[in-house]
Amino acid sequence: MKTDEYKTLMDLTGGKTGSVTGGGCLGICFGGEDTNWDPFSYGIGIEKPSKQSAVKFEDIPVPASAWAVFDCTLDNLQEVTKKIFSEWFPSTGYEHAPAPELEVYLPENPVTKVMPCQIWIPIIKKKR
Predict the structure, then answer these.
(1) Who is most buried in 36, 58, 67, 127, counting CB within 10 A?
(2) Whole-number Å distance between alpha carbons of 34 and 99
(3) Please, what sign has the CA dihedral across residues 33, 120, 46, 112?
(4) Any idea where the domains of the chain sit in the sequence?
């Protein structure tokens, strides 16, 4: 995404975080072996304010889901993601629901300069 496109996207938020996720920016992961999407695709987005037009961006609804939410930082996001699939899923009664995963980028801590993130995984009870 070009810098001017990113600025235009962020301007749509009016400087506010999303009302559902609390994030300023979202990474949206479509696809992979645990979903119905193939091949894997990645998008950058925001929670579009309800009265806002998406202008030149694609408006992709994310279906309602039960979510497992994992805290992380920008520095360890990939490590936490690997643990979710290699450790958390096998030890629970849940499996990946057929919906996109979200990377939620929360406001940076101005003191530590650490960007907290969350990984939102759509889940359903395992079929027996």
Answers:
(1) 67
(2) 10
(3) negative
(4) 3-107
